[in-house]
Amino acid sequence: MMLENLEPAAPDAILGLTEAYKNDPNPAKINLSVGVYKDADGTTPVLSTVKEAETRLHGSEVSKSYLPMTGLAEFNKTVQALLFGPDSELIGSGRIATAQTPGGTGALRVAGDFLHTMFPDATVWLSGPTWPNHPGIFAAAGIEAQTYPYFDATSNSLSFDAMIDRFNTIPAGDVVLLHGCCHNPTGVDPSPSQWETIAEVICRRQLLPLVDFAYQGFSDGLEQDATGLRTLSRHVDEMLICNSFSKNFSLYNERVGALTLIARSAQEAETATGHIKLRIRTNYSNPPAHGGAIVAAVLADEGLKAQWHLEVDSMRERIRSMRELFVQTLAAKGAKQDFSFMQQQRGMFSFSGLTPPQVAKLREEYSIYIVNSGRVNVAGMTESNMNTLCEAIVAVLD
Ligand code: LMR
Predict the structure, then answer these.
(1) What is the DSSP secondary-structure string of 162-216?
(2) CA end-to-end span of the chain, whole Å?
(3) What is residue 7's DSSP assignment?
């Protein structure tokens, strides 16, 4: 009676494509939509360090009682060390507080709810373009969103000057969402010196940086990829960070991430955490335990941690080699356009420049699934699917 008149909902811009891919009977289908890492055999692996931690946890777990609203304390400490380095003076200062969340998306939603409740007049500024779920999350939280210039499609590079010019006009008290590394969807990141300028402007304009940090380790390395975040933390005294372990721990379906806040004092961090806890309580009450326990177990053990670093290195290296092979194979198959700019892009994604009609043709005629913006998940390419993929792309380019 109430449901009969509902209009169908639009499919999700990313996950909707994976649903369509799963229903596609074509055996040659290729899914380069959702950002999920595949190994050379096309499988999303469970990391060996994760398996080892799970074995240990299986033996030692004695209870499945609720976690605190902010999650596992050991996990939260570990997150701070990974974000800022174990010797950071923030750690132990009391100015930093972390809440374990169900994935990076959960962290963003809690951040959105917190911001909307405490600062109802604040606008959040998103990069143009950004992850298609960002506008939806902030709309669901009731926050107004605006866009700042980020990507210059003609040069396939950062619109740095335009971005800084816009930051210089944003009113104090607004929130600027920055991608910590491996910008999604473009793969184009600021350089270390550009981060300095960004941090300086954000500080001078009294804006609140909200860093979405979902790909630590997938650009240049776990430490190097935190450059933007750490640069910001040297300039500003308040910041929010939403990080995820979906990619760098390959823990996608365990939903493990964190919301970290930095405040001016320990007292202010504690007060803000109190409000964040209220937002968590009305969202999902407290986070699932298993993924956080795995991350904490791996990072607490020096041997497992070193092994995990190698596993992240090897995922990053495979993506880099696929990026190269993709550019070479497109050229070898006769692509008239030059795709070499993709070799400068970082992380899982490449912004290919394919247009929505070309993307639609790839899906309808070749069962190749790419996000409408032309973003391809390089981590879904393998030596086995590369020829089929590049032949189809060259065919739709003509
Ligand atoms: C993506 O952008 O594909 C990933 O962040 C996964 C997702 O949830 O969209």
Answers:
(1) HHHHHHTTSPTT-EEEEESSS-TTT-----HHHHHHHHHHHHHTT-EEEEEE--T
(2) 50
(3) P
Query: Alpha-carbon distance 200 to 167, whole Å?
Result: 11
35 CB under 6 A from ligand 1? Answer: yes
**What residues have CB less than 8 Å from 247, skipping those under 6 apart?**
35, 37, 214, 215, 217, 218, 348
How many Å lie between the centroid of ligand 1 and the Cα of residue 282? 24
CB-based contact 13:372 (threshold 8 Å): yes
Strand (E) or helix (H) holding 13: none
Average pLDDT, the chain: 96
Which tokens sit at 379? 């981590």
pLDDT in tens, 160-177: 999 999 999 999 999 999
Sequence-ordered list of residues with C-beta below 8 angstroms from that of 311, at least 6 positions apart, any chain? 47, 48, 49
* One-letter amino acid for residue 253 of the chain: N
Q: The tokens 């590369």 sit on which residue?
A: 386
Closest ligand 1 atom, residue 371 Cα? 3
What CA–CA distance (Å, rounded) separates 91 from 85? Answer: 9
In DSSP notation, 210-256 reads EEEE--TTSSS-TTGGGHHHHHHHHH-S-EEEEEE-TTTT--GGG--
Q: Ligand 1 centroid vs 126 CA: distance in angstroms?
A: 16
Question: Can you tell me the mean pLDDT for 101-127?
Answer: 98
pLDDT digit string, tens, across residues 299-335: 999 999 999 999 999 999 999 999 999 999 999 999 9
Amino acid symbol at 314: S
CB 215 within 8 A of CB 247: yes
Side-chain-facing half-sphere of 295: CA atoms under 13 Å = 35
Ordered by where they begin, the domains of the chain are 15-46+304-397 (3.90.1150.10), 67-300 (3.40.640.10)
CA 205 to ligand 1 centroid distance, Å: 31
SS3 145: strand
Q: How far apart are CA 286 and CA 333, in angstroms?
A: 52
User: Does residue 14 have its Cβ closer than 6 Å to ligand 1?
Assistant: yes
